[in-house]
Known about the structure:
By secondary structure, this protein is mainly alpha-helical. 62% of the residues lie in helices and 0% in strands. 9% of the residues are buried.
Amino acid sequence: ALASQLGAVTVSSVPDEQSAEVGGLQNTVTNLGASIGTAVAGAVLISALTTSFFAGIQGNPAIPDELSAKAEVNLAGGVPFIPDDQLEAALAEVGVTGDTATAVVEENSEARLDGLRASLAVLSVLAVVALFFSGGIPTRQPGAESAAAVNAAPTPGTGPAPGPAPEPASGPASEPAPEAEPVKGADPP
């Protein structure tokens, strides 16, 4: 709903002749922004998830050092964002069970939350920065003032613009004219 309102503001801020081009440009920029935002959020999410997970398994005494080192080598490209049940199944396949598996699953759960928090924090900061730049959005359609002035101006040959009648001036020039004397030989009115 917000995107459609922003589109209406954008298109209404230009003359009608340019509204199609502006609408197309606005849709292109919206899609580009959504793509870049998704990429940034995903990159921050995976980076924070990976960093938090590796820090968690290295500092957890229930996870052997050799398992931590093996996990870092195998997951160097990034820790996948997987649910706990899939991680438990994967750990069981490679023979990691018991307290060690529980500790890895807990670290993964905490790392997922850390990644989500970091990603949402970055998106929130970007939204606040965008609000700062939204102060430049026009509040009136360009050219609306000049169009209103043209419509209010009298058209040549049509007389003055309609409005209240002028009030009579005061002073000697505003005194009534003396009555004219009748012309001799004319019939009285």
